[in-house]
Fold each of these.
Amino acid sequence: MRLANKVILITGGYTGIGKAIAQKAVKEGAKVLVNGLDEKFGLELVKDLGTENATNLTIDITKKEAPKLLIEHVIQKFGKLDCIVNNAAQIVSSTIQNTHSEFLIDILKTNTVAPLAIIREALPYLEKTKGCVLNIGSINAWGGEPDLLAYSISKGALMTMTRNLGDSLFRENGVRVNQINPGWVLTENEQNKKKAEGMKDDWYKDIPAIFAPAKRLFSPEEIAAAATFLLSNECGPISAQVIDLEQFPLIGRNLPKNWQGSHN
C-alpha cells in the first residue's frame, strides 16, 4: 500500500476533495485526522473509514487555537504526523466592486494564513518523520475568473507560499511542500451551489467544450489519485512544485472553431 503507516491531517476533509483524499489515504494504508465545520459529516466519515483508521476534529481553522488543537489531537490519537493536506477553503464570488479590505482579509485568513499557521505548528513533528505538506490550490491562482477576485488572490498567495516553503523547509528541515491546482471539480458543494443559482439538477452533464474538452468535470477521486502520489514516498525528493490538474492548457489554448468570444 502506497501510504502504509503514514498519519495524515486533512483540513476541509468532511466533503468534496478532502473527503476523497481521506478515503483514498485510508485505502492506501494511512491513518487520518479529518477536519471540517459540520460535526455530523465528520462523524459519518469516521464511521465509514473505521475508528481505528480515522478521527475527526470539528473546528474553524481560522480560530487562534485551531492549529495547536489539531496537532495535539493527531499526536494524541496516532503518536506521530507524516503529512498535512491543507484543503479547507472559502470559495466565494467577488469582484473589484465588492471586494472590500475586510472581506479580502477574511478570505485570506482561511485560504492562506491558516494553512501557514498549521504548517508552523506541525513542523517539529513533520521534521521528525521527514514528512510533507500538500496544499490544495486552484487554477485560479494563475489569474482567476472575473468574479473570483478574492479567492484567486488567496490561492495565488498560497501558491507562492508553497514554492517558498517547499524550498526552504526541504533544505533546512527535510520537509517537502507541494501543491495541486485543480480545475473544475464536481463536488457535492459545487452541485448544490449551481442548483441554488437556478441551474437544472443535471447541469454538469451539459458542460460546453470550452470549459471541459472531455465533456465532463473532474471527480474528487481523480484529484485524490494525484494527491496520493505527492503524499507517498514514490515521488522521492519532489518539493516546491505546483501541479495543475486541468483539461486544457492555461497558456496557448486552441479555441474551438465556432468560439464566439473575444479575439483580443
Note: Helices lie at 16-27, 39-49, 66-78, 101-129, 149-173, 188-196, 220-231.
Amino acid sequence: MEPTLALSREAAGSADARVVQPRPRILDDKTMLRTAAELTRDLNTPNRAFYWGDLIGSAVLGYGALVVAVLASSTLVTVLAAVVSVLALYRALLFIHEVSHMKHSALPGFRLGWNLIAGIPMLVPSFMYEGVHNLHHAKTRYGTADDPEYLPLALMKPWTLPVFILVSLLAPIGLLIRFAILSPLSWLSPKLRDLVIARYSSLSINPAFRRRIPAGEQRVLFDRLDAAASVWAIALVALVATGVIPMRGFLIGLGIGSAVALLNQVRTLVAHLWENEGEQMTVTAQYLDSVNVPPPSLLPGLWAPVGLRYHALHHLLPSLPYHSLGEAHRRLSAVLEEGSPYHKASYRSALGLMHRIGRSTMVRR
C-alpha cells in the first residue's frame, strides 16, 4: 500500500533547493524486459490457498493480539501483544495492494472477503486504492505530476522527510473523521459528496491528485463500501462514547493503528528512490527508480510483507501474484548477466536507503 501524506512539490523548488544535474535519459533494456516476461509466464496464476490462508491467519493473529493487549494487566504483555498485532494487521492490510492488481475472476470473493476482514474494520476499504494505484503503474504517468503516488522526495528540503513519516501517526484520526463525519454529511450534499470522493477517498501523496468520480458498477461498489465503513466508524465512536469500549482499549487500538500507518509510511519512503522531477520515464528507468530488498535479509519480510520487498520487480511485472515474486527474482537473478540493470535495483536494507534519500535532500545550492 502507498502512503497517506501529501507534501507540496514546491518544497523542491525554492532558491535554496537541491542542485539537480540534468540526467541522461535511461533507455529500455529490451533484453531484461523480454527475459522477465518469458521466464515468469508460468507464475501468473494466484494461489487461493496462499491468499486466503495468509489473509485469514494474519487477521486472526492481529485481532487476537489486539485483544490480549487490551485485556492484559502487565505492561510488558501489553507492549509485546501490541507489537505482534501491528505486524500481523499490517500484513493483512497490505493485501489491498494485491486486491488493486488482481483479476477478480481469478480469486472470486477475495475482494469482498478482504474488505470484511481488514478493509472496513481498519477503515481502509478497497476503493482507497483501486482506481488510484493503477495510475501509478501507467507508463506515461509514473513519476510525473499525474502520478498520485509520487513526489520527488529525494530532491526536497530535509524537513520534508521527517514530516512525511511522522504525520502518518495521525492516520487513524483522519480516517475516523473521513468515515464518521465527512461520509454521512456528504450523502446530504451532492457537491460535498463529489469533493469527498475526489479529495479524501484515496491513498495518495500527490497533493494535486483528484480521483475521478466513479460511475456505473464501480460507483455502486464505492458507495456500498463507503456506507459500510461509515456505519462501522460511527458505531465505534458511539461504543467508546457510551463506555461499551473502554477508553484504554480504544487508545491502545488507536496506537496500534498509528503504528501500522507509521510502518507503512517508512516502507513507502524506501519503496522508490524518488529522484524523478516529473519527466516521463521508460519502463527500465521506472524499475531503477524502484527498490528490491531481497534475501538474505530477513527484516524486509516484516516491514515489506506480501511481496513488497520486491517492489522494483513488481513495477516490472505488476500482474505477478505476491507469492510468485521470490521465485521470479531467483530466476531472473540467475539468468541475467551481472551488467544487467536488473541487479542495480537491489539494496541491502531500509536504513541504507533512508540514508541515501536523506543525504540527497542535504545537497544544497
Note: Residues 9-361 form one domain.
Amino acid sequence: MIESFETFLAVAAAGSFSEVARRQDVAVSSVTRKIDALEAELGSKLFHRSPRRLALTDAGEQFLPRARLILGELAGAKEALNAGDAEPRGLLTVTAPTVFGRRHVVGALASFLRRYPDIEVDLHLIDQIVDLSEQRMDVAIRIGLLPDSDLRATTLAQVRLVTCASPAYLARKGRPHSPEDLLQHDCITVASPPAPGFVWRYAGVNRNQPLPVRGSFRTDDKDGMLQAALQGLGVLHIATWVVCDQLRSGELVALFPDEAGAPSSPGMPGIHAVRLPGRSHATKARLFIDHLRAEIGDTPWWDRMLQQDRGVPA
C-alpha cells in the first residue's frame, strides 16, 4: 500500500506514467499496476487517462493531500525511531527569497551547522515560488500572505513597513510631514503591481486605500530599491528587515517615526517557513525551522533594535 501511495504522488507530480517509470527504472506496466491496485482498494478512479493526457479526477484531487499527509506522518515516525539519540545527519535543502536569504538565512544556517555538524545544507536563493515536491526541497522561506495548501507552515515574523529617505534627498526636496505629502515627492516603487500588504497604505489616510504615489525610478529588486534610496533618488516604503541597519546608522531617516518598529496591523503579510509532508527529512526540516525561529526571536531582532533606538521597551 505504501508503495502505491508513493507511486500515486510521483505520477500526480510528473503527469505521466512513463516518466515515473523512467525515473524509477521500471516498466510502465509496473507503475500502472500499482495505480490500478490503489484505485481498486479505494473504490475510486484517481486519474483521467487518455492517449494524450493524464489528469487527476476530483477524487484524485481530494486524495492527494491526504496521501501526502499519511506518508509524511509515516516518514516522520520512521525517522524518529531510527534516529534515537543519534545526532541528525545528511542533506537538508532550503530555498529562500534572494535578499532575505542573504541577510537573514545564511547567518542562521551558519549557527545551525555549527550546532549540527553532521548535517549538510543546499541553499537555493530564488525569488520565484518553488514547488517543493517537484524540486525536492525540504524547507522554503516565503514572504507574503500564504494561500491555502497542504504545506506545513510556521510563521517566523510579521512584516512591518517603514517609510524612509536619505538625508541628501530630504535636504534637496524637503521632508514630508504626513503621508499625504508623499504625493508631491519622488517615490521609489515596484516595476510590477505590488503584492497585497506591500502597497503605500496608511491608517486613516485616503480612506485607508493605497496612496497613488509616483516617482522616476521603479524596480522589483529590494536591494535595488535600497541602493536607489541611499543614492537620494526618492522616498522608500519597504519592510524593516531590509533597511534596519541603514535606519540605525542614519543613512536613511524614518519619515514617520511611530511607524518604524511599531506593532504590525492585522492582515499584514508574514515571513513563513513551509515544508511538505511526506519528505523523509522531516526531522532536520523541523530542527532548522525551530532554529531559524529562535534566531529571529518572538519580536524579530531587526524590529527589536528599532524599538530600542526609539526608547520603546523590548
Note: Residues 156 and 294 are 9 Å apart (CA to CA).
